[in-house]
Amino acid sequence: MPVAAPMKALRLVWRYGVESVVALLMGVVVGTVILQVFCRFVLGNPLSWSEELARYAFVWVTFLGAAVAYRHGAHIIVETVVVQLPRPLQVALAWLVDALMTVALLVLLVQGLGIVKTSSNVEATMLGIPMSWVYGAVPVGAAVMLAFQLERTLLRLRGQLPAVAPAGAQEPST
Question: For residue 88, is it within any domain?
Fold first, then answer.
């Protein structure tokens, strides 16, 4: 029985972890912008670092949010032609799209790691943090999306993921 609690916690982190980080980062973006507006227009003393923090947090929101959207099937797809195809062709096309997505994400991961390595000696102007922390959003987002792609592949192998997602598709059930 003691194994059940850690497994439940792991499932919760897998299911809601990235969404929680995205929500937290959006809170940082909104809070920082509100603080900057208050300091600039009410106190008359603008903050020097707030715009940079909001921008860098938004970069992370973009890449992690893309992974969340991918997991939930919320990216824009054109299925008008695909739904007209015979079922076996729809399945083959779904596998092809998943394979191409995996290749694209691997390229993004590898190239993102290269950018992180290149920018490790550069510091942000106001925050003084290494820019590799900012550019780290690219490989981290790609890695998270690859993990979600693996989840999709396993679900498709088990027959729990349709070849063409119906309108208003929901997240995979794990």
Answer: yes
